[in-house]
């Protein structure tokens, strides 16, 4: 007997419904249940399969059936073809184990249901019966009562048209009033009288310039809200102020008129929700631009708040949940947003200092003192301070002539505790200012250099660096309120702006960033840099360098809008840095083009702040939310920010000050700023727009680490916790400039790391090296080793420069070659000794060629690596879709590795990979080499999208393939004649013994096939997973075991994650990807006891198995 169950699902959320305290979310074809607990926070309970197709809507239709110890709600789920009546029962204490969803009647509907309502009808025996009516996408109203098996009646609207939106505005036992939003840009208001079935068109509203996507109505204010793909939201109301229809006659006389038109979304608007907040009516709209916008429904008409969430999240559903806005969309996340927080997020108190005492401000430092709040320095050589009464006063230091030594030039550096300021002059003077609870003292000014002080930067609480002419750097120590200069001097390499902008000291390593976008690492005993990262932040300055407090990772940010991640490899004593290397670009889904600073959480960067054009912004990096936005004129102006923290909350107060138009403006939030409160926001990991590929990279005792990538160019590493059945996004890997098509990995058993090759559009191949952090095994160290564009360019900057130049001079670059799409990749080891690792990467390309790369890395210096394009081979007559390598170790008769690839003409090609191929071949030649050692077999009549191989007793090869013609093929090949070269070129010969083809099981093109022992798994665009048993290898006899409908659309790939037994498919866990991802557990049981145990196992989602990759 076979049982399968869903453990974890990640798909589009098109339906949300709330009735206190239950929230229902339609995720694909599954219902997820949440409840609002006594702390006013939503908690996830469980999943329940509902329909065999995606859920379009959920609606509660009946009041509570209150019982003594339990409650139940009735609700309806509707999709394109079904309307499912359900009831949810739960105990009053909301014990998750006692939540039960009871499925009742299921009605087939041939068209999409848009809205549904219930009407109580009085019967002759003085009882009541519920009459259910719904309107579908053909503008039909269907009546149904619980006593009939089928529809009671079907009534067409006044016009036969296609609808994307419809709403019941009013419904009684006598009539219903309907608003229908058509694809012809109109809204039809019409009525249906139940007794006579008379249909009357009351009004047609025009004004939209696109399809109507949603309609909402508020009876209290008689307001109709409509949204469209013309990106507008329109408010309609009767011209009579305060008029609200109460009867059929009122509705006949009601005339909606356009009251207000709102624009603000950057893409089409999908849904709206009317909210009454403190007796003030407003409407919230969501769209495919990731924005949630609140608008006022009464005068003064205006946009109230605008918030952007995930970059690729197209919002498709929204509901009200107590004090929350709950929204879901394409990335599978559910956002819980407190309405109060949403509307008052940027409610700040602004203080403006403007009087005769203020000149042009040169520098600002915010202080952490009860009496003194801020120190500024102006162009007249004068200090000012702001006290706790917000008075702006002159700060005088006796016995020091500032006008002579500093005048209009000063450099100021503030330590982390904000109680020490070091100042520098253009004449080489340095001074130390100490801020205490009730005094500000200038302790000393000393001339320590004959040249200008270009920059001062704290590298530790009591250490800082300063830079002077010709790139000279020195370290200063603050001890006993004195500045003590170190003896060592460090030199910056030549650059346009040869002075530092920030720095950090970690053990024996000094790391500095300069004004030209470079980062350098110096051993403290050496004056020249041992580690160089030229223009890693473009050509503008590096803004900050910080170390993560829990790991050996270093991060830098710059004025190019990027954060870079590095790693310090320590010796065994953990006190000496042996190696310092760049890992990757730390991805921020924000719009900032100048990152000024960031703050850490336990795992990674949590907050980042900087500038987008004229605006200063603070972003919650973990949840990709913009927290603060202020028009300050841009980052070139004088400014400072202070974030007040405590151990429990990342931020409790924000203080931001800037100088603009002869005014000093200080902003403080009015109340505690609780960013990490779970009641404000909850989300699952973000997913790309479509996932093209997935890969298990490695596992620990309690987790899987999985890579997914697709159409949005960013690779994600997910951690799946077995015990809690929960996902965490561990890392975003940025580097691809086009969609990622394939990922393959090779596990290095000696160093316990994984090498990953990822390929995509624009002829791009990237090699990543991933290992666990020795300080925390739940954290990863991911290094972007090499990036290659078709052998021409080894970094993105050179490639983009060449592309831009080719626009004006096309002869500079072969655009056809650069635009080649890399469609698939495979990787295997060639050699590995104690000093060097060599990997071979073979890429299938859209230009009918195979490209073979060699990757070299020195074992003891992971920063030294090289990726070389060795040869380009013409290997097919059409586009090559899939490629695999068979190691000669796995097949006894092979003397070389064997390559297999499929093409768009239905052919399977075999060829040998000569380990001694000529390395002198010009890999940049425009004429690719012809692949000689090749055998081709026609298996399908159309393009082959998926292949997988299995070696049988090291003597023969079984190949499974799936194609565009919906067919699955199983082919048996024998290897013969080894030892004699056929036509003086080939070193092998294959015979196709038998092929069987099944064309009827799947209804759409096959996208992936996978072997596991004697089991074959296949998936298709038709959202079906089919399991086959191979019963005879010699005769290729197979039997279909079962078919499972999956919840995600446009399935592209799958991966076996683990299995408990080695000889049968018992307790195996599969990851299926497409428009989302879904974990499917499949259990092969032999007795009822095992069935009961596996049911319990699936319920608790606890996996205790070993992985087979």
TrEMBL record:
<keyword id="KW-0819">tRNA processing</keyword>
<dbReference type="InterPro" id="IPR036322">
    <property type="entry name" value="WD40_repeat_dom_sf"/>
</dbReference>
<dbReference type="GO" id="GO:0030488">
    <property type="term" value="P:tRNA methylation"/>
</dbReference>
<keyword id="KW-0963">Cytoplasm</keyword>
<dbReference type="GO" id="GO:0005737">
    <property type="term" value="C:cytoplasm"/>
</dbReference>
<keyword id="KW-0853">WD repeat</keyword>
<keyword id="KW-0677">Repeat</keyword>
<dbReference type="InterPro" id="IPR051973">
    <property type="entry name" value="tRNA_Anticodon_Mtase-Reg"/>
</dbReference>
<dbReference type="Pfam" id="PF00400">
    <property type="entry name" value="WD40"/>
</dbReference>
<protein>
    <recommendedName>
        <fullName>tRNA (34-2'-O)-methyltransferase regulator WDR6</fullName>
    </recommendedName>
</protein>
<feature type="repeat" description="WD">
    <location>
        <begin position="205"/>
        <end position="237"/>
    </location>
</feature>
<dbReference type="InterPro" id="IPR015943">
    <property type="entry name" value="WD40/YVTN_repeat-like_dom_sf"/>
</dbReference>
<comment type="similarity">
    <text>Belongs to the WD repeat WDR6 family.</text>
</comment>
<dbReference type="InterPro" id="IPR001680">
    <property type="entry name" value="WD40_rpt"/>
</dbReference>
């Amino acid at each position: 007997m076979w049982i399968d169950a869903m453990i974890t699902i990640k798909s589009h959320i098109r339906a949300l419904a709330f009735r206190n305290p239950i929230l229902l979310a339609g995720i694909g074809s599954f219902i997820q249940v949440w409840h609002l607990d006594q702390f006013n926070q939503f908690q996830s309970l469980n999943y329940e399969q509902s329909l065999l197709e995606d859920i379009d809507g959920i609606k509660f239709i009946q009041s509570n059936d209150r019982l003594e110890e339990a409650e139940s709600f009735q609700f309806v789920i509707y999709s394109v073809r079904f309307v499912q009546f359900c009831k949810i029962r739960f105990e009053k204490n909301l014990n998750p184990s006692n939540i039960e969803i009871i499925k009742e009647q299921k009605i087939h509907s041939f068209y999409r249901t848009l809205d549904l309502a219930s009407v109580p009808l009085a019967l002759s025996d003085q009882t009541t019966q519920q009459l259910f009516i719904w309107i579908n996408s053909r503008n039909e109203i269907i009546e149904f009562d619980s006593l009939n098996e089928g529809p009671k009646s079907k009534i067409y609207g006044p016009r036969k048209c296609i609808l994307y939106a419809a709403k019941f505005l009013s419904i009684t036992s006598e009539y219903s009033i309907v608003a229908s939003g058509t694809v012809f840009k109109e809204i039809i208001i019409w009525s249906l009288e139940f007794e006579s079935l008379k249909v009357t068109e009351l009004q047609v509203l025009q004004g939209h310039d696109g399809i109507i996507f949603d309609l909402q109505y508020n009876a209290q204010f008689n307001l109709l809200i409509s949204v469209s793909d013309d990106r507008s939201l329109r408010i309609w109301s009767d011209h009579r102020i305060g008029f609200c229809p109460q009867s059929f006659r009122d509705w006949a006389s009601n005339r909606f008129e356009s009251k207000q038109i709102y624009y603000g979304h950057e893409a089409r608007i999908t849904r709206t929700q009317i909210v009454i907040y403190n007796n003030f009516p407003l409407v919230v709209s969501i769209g495919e631009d990731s924005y949630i916008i609140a608008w006022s429904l009464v005068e003064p008409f205006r946009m109230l708040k605008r918030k952007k969430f995930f970059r690729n999240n197209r919002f498709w559903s929204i509901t009200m949940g107590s004090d929350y806005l709950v929204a879901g969309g394409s990335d599978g996340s559910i956002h819980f947003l407190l309405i109060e927080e949403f509307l008052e997020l940027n409610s700040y108190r602004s203080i403006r200092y403007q009087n005769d005492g203020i000149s042009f401000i040169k520098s600002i430092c915010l202080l952490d003192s009860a009496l003194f709040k801020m120190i500024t320095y102006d162009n007249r050589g004068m200090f000012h301070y702001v006290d706790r009464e917000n008075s702006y006063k002159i700060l005088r230091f006796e016995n020091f002539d500032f006008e002579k030594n500093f005048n209009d030039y000063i450099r100021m550096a503030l330590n982390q505790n904000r109680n020490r300021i070091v100042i520098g002059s253009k004449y080489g003077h340095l001074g130390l200012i100490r801020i205490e609870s009730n005094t500000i003292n200038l302790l000393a000014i000393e001339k320590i250099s004959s040249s200008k002080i270009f920059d001062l930067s704290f590298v530790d609480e009591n250490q800082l660096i300063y830079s002077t002419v010709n790139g000279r750097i020195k370290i200063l120590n603050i001890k006993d309120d004195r500045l003590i200069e170190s003896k060592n001097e460090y030199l910056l390499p030549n650059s346009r702006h040869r002075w530092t902008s920030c720095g950090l000291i970690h053990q024996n390593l000094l790391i500095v960033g300069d004004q030209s976008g470079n980062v350098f690492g110096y051993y403290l005993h050496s004056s020249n840099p041992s580690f160089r990262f030229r223009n890693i932040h473009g050509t503008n300055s590096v803004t900050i360098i910080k170390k993560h407090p829990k790991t050996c990772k270093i991060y830098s940010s710059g004025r190019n809008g990027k954060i870079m991640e590095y790693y310090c490899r320590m010796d065994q004593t953990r006190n000496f840095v042996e190696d310092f290397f760049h890992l990757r670009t730390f991805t921020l889904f924000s719009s900032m083009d100048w990152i000024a600073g960031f703050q850490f959480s336990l795992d990674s960067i949590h907050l980042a702040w900087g500038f987008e054009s004229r605006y200063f912004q603070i972003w919650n990096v973990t949840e990709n939310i913009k927290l603060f936005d202020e028009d300050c004129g841009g980052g070139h102006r004088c400014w400072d920010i202070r974030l007040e923290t405590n151990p429990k909350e990342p931020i409790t107060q924000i203080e931001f000050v800037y100088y603009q138009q002869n005014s000093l403006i200080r902003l403080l939030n009015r109340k505690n700023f609780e960013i990490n409160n779970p009641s404000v926001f909850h989300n699952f990991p973000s997913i790309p727009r479509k996932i093209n590929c997935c890969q298990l990279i490695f596992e620990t005792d309690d987790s899987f680490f999985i890579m997914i990538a697709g159409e949005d160019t960013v690779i994600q590493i997910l951690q799946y916790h077995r015990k809690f059945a929960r996902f965490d996004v561990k890392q975003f890997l940025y580097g691809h400039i086009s969609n990622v098509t394939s990922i393959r990995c090779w596990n290095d058993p000696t160093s316990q790391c994984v090498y990953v090759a990822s390929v995509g559009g624009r002829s791009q191949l990237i090699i990543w090296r991933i290992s666990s952090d020795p300080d925390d095994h739940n954290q990863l160290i991911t290094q972007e080793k090499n990036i290659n564009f078709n052998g021409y360019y080894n970094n993105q900057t050179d490639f983009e420069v060449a592309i831009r130049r080719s626009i004006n001079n096309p002869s500079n670059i072969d655009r056809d070659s650069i635009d080649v799409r890399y469609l698939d990749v495979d990787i295997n080891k060639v050699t590995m000794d104690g000093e060097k690792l060599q990997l071979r990467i073979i890429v299938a390309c859209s230009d009918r060629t195979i490209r073979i790369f060699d990757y070299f890395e020195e074992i003891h210096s992971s920063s030294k690596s090289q990726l070389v394009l060795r040869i380009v081979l013409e290997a097919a007559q059409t586009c090559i879709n899939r490629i695999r390598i068979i190691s000669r170790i796995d097949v006894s008769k092979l003397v070389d590795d064997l390559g297999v690839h499929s093409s768009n003409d239905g052919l399977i090609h075999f060829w040998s990979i000569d380990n001694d191929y000529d390395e002198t071949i010009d890999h940049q030649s425009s004429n690719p080499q012809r692949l000689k050692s090749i055998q081709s077999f026609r298996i399908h009549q159309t393009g082959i999208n998926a292949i997988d191989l299995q070696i049988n007793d090291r003597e023969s090869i079984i190949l499974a393939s799936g194609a565009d013609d919906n067919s699955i093929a199983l082919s048996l090949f024998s290897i013969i004649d080894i030892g004699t070269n056929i036509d003086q070129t080939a070193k092998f010969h294959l015979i196709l013994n038998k092929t069987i083809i099944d064309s009827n099981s799947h209804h759409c093109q096959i996208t992936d096939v996978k072997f596991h022992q004697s089991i074959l798994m296949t998936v298709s665009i038709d959202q079906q997973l089919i399991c086959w048993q191979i019963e005879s290898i010699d005769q290729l006899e197979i039997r279909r075991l079962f078919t499972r409908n999956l919840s995600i659309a446009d399935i592209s790939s799958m991966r076996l994650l683990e299995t408990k037994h080695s000889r049968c498919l018992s307790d195996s866990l599969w990851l299926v990807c497409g428009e989302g991802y879904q974990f499917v557990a499949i259990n092969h049981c032999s007795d009822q006891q095992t069935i009961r145990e596996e049911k319990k196992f699936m319920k608790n989602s606890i996996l205790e198995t070993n992985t087979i990759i």
